[in-house]
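hi! just following up on the protien thing from before. the input was this:
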Amino acid sequence: MNRDDDEAPSKSQIKREMHALRDLGERIAELPASKRSELPLGARLQAALIEFDRLRAREARRRHLSFIGKLMREEDLDAVREGLERLDAASAVHARELHAVEAWRDLLIAEEARLAAFIDLYPEADRQHLRHLLRACRREADRDGNRRHYRELFRTLRDTMSTSGRSAEPPPN
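and the predicted 3d structure came back as:
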């Protein structure tokens, strides 16, 4: 009796693989176009992703995701997964940096003496502008409503920390 059939993947296995490709395609489709351009994707798949962005009807998008999954068979999946991992890592680093900026902002507003520690870490910071923003933030905290200076302080800290050439460091405890 010949058992060549045992070596072929089962119908269930083929379906699992197709669903995995469709899920990978969906993950790529959810990325912004600027991030997608960093991935090693073929021309047909890129065109299909652009078409997917254009579609608004739910059922049309679902069918198109199946088509994207089919096109994923033609791609170098290892390279695509590696590219997605790089994007995820970059997103994680970006999130950590934003959390560090938020932590500094909250600490500086709460404790005026911490400004000296920030200036020590980031000597290129505009001390006078930061003091002005901190005073304005404390006044805004006393009043309800507009948080314009709070947001401006965040932007100033983020810009200072990003132009320093070092990764954003969370405040010392």
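The mean pLDDT is 89.
Residues 77-110 form the longest helix (34 residues).
cheers
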